[in-house]
Fold these 2 entries.
Entry 1:
Amino acid sequence: MKDIPVDVGLIYEGERIRKSSMYVDLAGPKSKGAELLLVVPPEEVEDGRVEVVGPDVDQMEEGGRYPFGILIKVAGEKLEEDLEGVFERKLHYFCNYIQGFMHLNSRDIIWCRISKDAAKKGLKLEHVGKVLVNLYKSEFDVIEKIQVTFYTDEKAVDEHIARAREVYEKRDARASAIKDEDVDVFYSCLLCQSFAPTHVCAITPSRSGGCGAVTWFEGRAAVKVDPSGPIGEIPKGEVIDPVKGEYSGINEYVREKSNGTIERVYLHSLFDYPHTSCGCFEAIAFYIPEVDGIGIVHRDFHGVTPFGIPFSTMAGQVGGGVQSQGFLGISIAYLRSPKFLQGDGGWRRVVWMPAQLKERVRSAIPEEMYEKIATENEAQDLESLRSFLEQKQHPVLEGLKREEEKEAPEEEPAATMPELTVPVQATAAGAPVEFTITFKNARIYAEKVIIRRKE
Ligand code: SF4
């Protein structure tokens, strides 16, 4: 591409920049950031303009870590607000076409990195912006005007994150106003098949894509403007299980698009046929067999789950487009869905989540459950989790006790005695010996007890 100091192309999509070859980190788990794309009136966009608020790459220190925000404004006669999430998700792919620039995740959990080689060749954010302008306009005819702003100044990034979160909330709230049964068609997203070939995101009103960027409304808008793009329609078909969320249309579609690898999908359960997980999910729901409950951990949480492992380790086991029993990559918006894991008991089954996430989705948690869900402050391992749940009389314990009773049925003793002394005769070194054994608080079990009156 003209005037860009590095190559740009699909071949760089899978490029990983390791720490040893990193020039700077932008946003990411140890900093902060957000990306946002807005559809605005044409008079609010200066077409082709790229602005950097704060230091650009050439003013950054090698090895440094900087807060980072991306704001893209687009305008066009045929554009509608519902397209924002879909176009915003494209940022991930377009950024990764740039040699020496890595983009991970979405929304307010983005993590970007610039390589030493790219910085040496003179790559700046200004160039990244020009590439984005070019790629967006060439891929989407409907975008008539586009303007890109990068934020690296801390105060400006904070303001940008706050604004972005407001928009995400608004988008998610809109999607939760309708339910799966209110519509005849669902949507699919195949964008992540580039690194998870069997992953097919089924997007319904009650379940947004794992990355959180694509809701049912955004799927519908995307199909209108780009019918042959990565987002397509899924005919709903027959309802096979309304609680777990199994539909014949989704099963058929997923079977075909996963090349026969995935046969069945439950939208709202972690078990048997859970939805596949790609790798860019915002959170993971995971089954904790020791308490028969469900934990949730999100990408921003850097501590360990009660299993003793952090999000990153768990994500490595869950992603890649496979169905992992008891594990499910989800969006934060799904936690607000009225059908949230309803096949497994929904919020009554949730036992642990990071305090920050619990606060963030507070309004979605039923009031009677809020205090019963442990966070890292009350439970750091399985033992402390179990005692917290017992203390709070969490509903999972009822099921757990029933299970334990089933496994080890306790027989009723025939008699209990505070003290029972039994005379014993035995032989030691060939000679007979007599002694007594005393049982304290003895419980006597017997197949049959015969009581006879003394004559
Ligand atoms: S996580 Fe799902 S919705 Fe999001 S980009 Fe990937 S395939 Fe699409």
Note: DSSP finds eleven helices and 19 strands in the chain.
Entry 2:
Amino acid sequence: MTFKFLSAFPWYMSDNRDFMLYQQDVFEILPSIPDSSVDLIFADPPYFLSNGGITCKSGKMVKVDKGDWDKSRGIEANHEFNRRWLSECQRILKPSGSIFVSGTSHVIFSLGFAMQQLNMKILNDISWFKVNPPPNLACRYFTHSTETIIWAAPHKDSRHYFDYHAMKKENGGKQMKSLWSITSPLKVEKRFGKHPTQKPIKLLMRIIKAASREDDLVLDPFAGSGTTGIAAALQNRRFIGIDLDDEYLEIARQRFETRDEELPVKRKKVYRRRQKKAARTVKKTVKSKKTDNPPKSSKSPQKSKDDKDKNPTLF
Ligand SMILES: C[S@@+](CC[C@H](N)C(=O)[O-])C[C@H]1O[C@@H](n2cnc3c(N)ncnc32)[C@H](O)[C@@H]1O
């Protein structure tokens, strides 16, 4: 099935039309999507945070300025914004579908309240534990190290899809808990540029695996650098992403076209290969020290300083 129903012209479309990006306001696109047509939504909406506070970036104190899209319009207007787009999401979700909404304390209470007002069925509140958070510069708070992800079905009587067994398998044979320890995005995920609030691919891979099947339609109304779309494409789901900013969409497009670089298996393989190589080097070094002989693989018994520098190090 292709996305014939959308009135606007996509900013980018893959050859088979399974991956589409729209540069548009969310309120222009969502109303053109038919009722009960989407299987899964992940939304990471504006935090309404960029209003002159400070934060820590690469060890430096900087003003929080993620962009105009992140400026607060006042508590009530922010809440009305959340209620409006959530209500559209509720309308377009299939009865078997579900939505994951991510946010920090600045916005998550409004999002949760809006979902309650719309009579959605809250399934879980997942705590994403950011294993490597930036330090708290004010030293008057605990280090902010979690983000909440509310998982909900569109209506109280909805029968949402959940791949329980896949999640159990991913958790080493034990039930997957609602506390997820996941590090911030890796370098490879930012190879075409950074988005200020980019989510890690691992987080989205898990969400998509847990709550959708192959060929399902996944939508992200605030797509940013396209993390949801990349995770969807890597797992053979179809994707629609919406964002106001074409600079972010350009990152999403380039990530999509080279998406295999973000495959966890590939990343794991490289990591394991490096680990094995490092372990072998250690073994040889220990052996050579014991026997007082140089390692077998070294071409010359008298190693130069340069050769030593080329040796892989343990990490
Ligand atoms: C929190 S970021 C999402 C980041 C994304 N999850 C990622 O991994 O890159 C929110 C995004 O919503 C976009 N945005 C804000 N208001 C919007 C609106 N009314 N319609 C469409 N996109 C909007 C912003 O440009 C921004 O990229």
Note: Residues 266-310 form one domain.
